[in-house]
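Notes from hallway chat w/ T.B., transcribed later so I don't forget. T.B. wanted the structure written out for a chain they're using in a teaching module, and asked if we could keep both sequence and structure tokens in one place. Agreed to drop them here.
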Amino acid sequence: MKTSASDARLAPPAPRAGFSWGHAPWGYVLRAEALAHVAHGWTTKPLRLRPPAPASDEWAQVAGVAGLGPPALARLHQVHGAAVHVVDGPATAGMLPEADIAVTASDAFAVAVQVADCVPLLVAGRRAVAAAHAGWRGTAANVAGTAIEALVRLGEDRRELRAAIGPSIGPCCYEVGDEVADRFADAGWRDALDRWFPRPEAARHLDLWTANRDQLIAAGLAPSQVHVSGLCTRCHGTWFHSYRREGATTGRMAGFIRGGIRSDRV
């Protein structure tokens, strides 16, 4: 679905409490109040962040909003797993590490994930931060909990971590087959199936927002420190790319966050 000139003048959809819209070179950027001590955000549809768009120029815009140059924005080759990449130095040119979680404790770097329905999770502690990509496979593999443990290994106190779930497909639209629920049961989540797989009418839907929130709380975060934007990428076609709505040619949004304490807002 293409965004028309008249659509571009519309106000973006309202997120849940604790999130707000700001301005960026490409248009709007979503931010979480809980992460206001670090530069961070989630991009919107004007950026495609994949070919044939000029991806390097677009990623330079994302890096600039984080207050950095493009080489300091660490990205991943995402594979729907739960591997962690620790960013503590410049990446090898042209090489993206194979992982779905990136963490750093340095304010010289920001970490980013890209999504088109999957959950873009951002987490911040006193200095270390994480960006994680969680689709259904990653959620079954406990990406959220794995990201928390990675930050604890970098010296963070899990009780002080703050997490925010950006725009992703909501339980309203994420219809899945019974085999997906079976995979969650096999992965050890059988007791959570009723909460994570509600059945509106006859179809089984997966609630990635509740699943990732529950996993963050199980990893030691206080419920008050876990925030969900509540913006469904499939519902809001003017603002977000969605694989479920647009198919394989769709673009991607990024969730990005910079390490280290910063007193200024981006």
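Follow-up for T.B.: Residues 1-8 have pLDDT under 50 and may be disordered. Might be a good example for the class.
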